[in-house]
Amino acid sequence: EAGVTQFPSHSVIEKGQTVTLRCDPISGHDNLYWYRRVMGKEIKFLLHFVKESKQDESGMPNNRFLAERTGGTYSTLKVQPAELEDSGVYFCASSVAGASYEQYFGPGTRLTVT
Amino acid sequence: GQSLEQPSEVTAVEGAIVQINCTYQTSGFYGLSWYQQHDGGAPTFLSYNALDGLEETGRFSSFLSRSDSYGYLLLQELQMKDSASYFCAVRGGPDTDKLIFGTGTRLQVFP
């Protein structure tokens, strides 16, 4: 069974540009999450999808971040326009219904904004 | 607010036993999970405690005391490959599945 995959693995962009991150969860996992780890600090929640619906957006930092999950399959996270403080590693995770304590994480996308 | 505290770093030698502690302050409690993350890798689920007591999974065990708002991860027969960061995490609340992570503990295993 394939794990959670993320693309790209690394992205370097200039301040003001746009970047789109993609996540493909484990097949059959209705729950999809986005997290971010900045500068070796703790992993922080961004948002949670159940199928195609946003269940919890409480961690989204501001309206420069837009997440979508088309058809309840893969998800994208767009940052527009990017700022320096957006640099970090963005993780996607998925889980089956009722087992949010056991989330399967992807390898992350390392975003560097210069 | 909700917070989880862990020691920043722990060192040990191969074959030894190490305990990584986690104390939490949450409004409500919905279980404690542990994750391992190697440098540059994905966090990987290790263990989960919903009730007080010890859960054993091979060389790793996790303990929870809800009355003390405290848990720990116990790693036995340490191997070099256990060198990684370890995070405790709790569910954010009754109406959310988000995880709130601790500050992380970096474990270094020496030969």
Q: Notable features of this structure?
A:
A: 114 residues, mainly beta, seven-stranded mixed beta sheet, four-stranded antiparallel beta sheet, B: 111 residues, five-stranded antiparallel beta sheet, globular
Short description:
The complex is a heterodimer of chains A (114) and B (111). With 114 residues, chain A is mostly beta strands. In chain A, 0% of the residues lie in helices and 49% in strands.
What does this protein look like?
The complex is a heterodimer of chains A (114) and B (111). Chain A is mostly beta strands and 114 residues long. Chain A is 0% helix and 49% strand. Chain A has strands spanning 5-7, 10-13, 19-24, 31-37, 43-50, 53-56, 65-68, 75-79, 88-95, 104-105, 109-113. In chain A, strands 2, 4, 5, 6, 9, 10 and 11 form a 7-stranded mixed beta sheet that branches. Chain A starts with a strand and ends with a strand. By secondary structure, chain B is mostly beta strands. Chain B contains no helices and 11 strands. In chain B, the strands form 2 sheets. In chain B, strands 2, 4, 5, 9, 10 and 11 form a 6-stranded mixed beta sheet that branches. Chain B is globular and about 45 Å long. The model of chain B has no long low-confidence stretch (mean pLDDT 94). The A-B interface holds A 3-4, 31, 33, 35, 41-45, 48, 55-56, 58-59, 91, 93, 95, 100-108 and B 31, 33, 35, 41-45, 48, 50, 87, 91-92, 96-104.
